[in-house]
Amino acid sequence: MNSIVERLKEVRNSIASACLQSNRRPESVQLLAVSKTKPADKIRELYLAGQRHFGENYLQEALEKQQELADLSDLVWHFIGPIQSNKTRDIAANFSWVQSIDRLKIARRLNDQRATDSVPLNILIQINIDDEKSKAGIHPEQLPAFAADLQEFPQLTLRGLMTLPAADASSAQQQRSLQAMQRLYSELASQYPTVDTLSMGMSNDLEAAINAGSTMVRIGTALFGARDKKGVTNDNASA
């Protein structure tokens, strides 16, 4: 089995290849390593190989890893899972990005609990592009009003959109969903100068997502292998 560093190289090569096929620069796509349920020593290995952005779903697990890796001061932590109201204070204090914003109440709590002497929290609005009842996210038609409401929060910076297309969709349906996200993103970016991130694409649809304009792919399985059992439940941002 390849080492985690070798798998990182393979993922980077896949990103570069997909970008080449789409006439894009490889550096236009950010790799987010989804490290939920994986130990801190694996994160450290990837860090030493040059990876800086890591995504976590489970708050307590993430806080423990952050403490263990506190010597790595330039790690960038993304919270990518569902957010409960009683978790917002720790998320606001310990993450640089939140990719799963779909409720104004949660956005307000994150804003109010982000220290005023900290840089604003980067946020992505989660879109339920395929209208799946089992997934979080706002509906596309709600986006204009929701994005406008977020502008009242000075400790949040709207950076773009995140989605999880239906896992069992046909290739044609997947492509339609990804292209619909790209159109939503382009419209949003034309209105808000801070918007520069479209987070979509995981281990099984990386190439299609990049072809559709993704600027950030969330990769877990291709880097770390199959996730541990505790990551199976309450999983709203798998990779």
From TrEMBL:
Lineage top rank: taxon: Bacteria
Gene3D superfamilies given in the database record: Alanine racemase (3.20.20.10)
Cofactor: pyridoxal 5'-phosphate
The entry's keywords: Pyridoxal phosphate
Keyword Methyltransferase in annotation: no
Domain Alanine racemase N-terminal: 28-227
Pfam families, per the entry: Ala_racemase_N
N6-(pyridoxal phosphate)lysine: modified positions: K36
GO molecular function (one): pyridoxal phosphate binding
InterPro entries, per database record: Ala_racemase_N, PLP-binding_barrel, PyrdxlP_homeostasis
CDD domains: PLPDE_III_Yggs_like
Positions in coiled-coil regions: none
Protein task: Pyridoxal 5'-phosphate (PLP)-binding protein, which is involved in PLP homeostasis.
Family to which this protein belongs: Belongs to the pyridoxal phosphate-binding protein YggS/PROSC family.
Protein name per the record: Pyridoxal phosphate homeostasis protein
Species name: Pseudidiomarina halophila
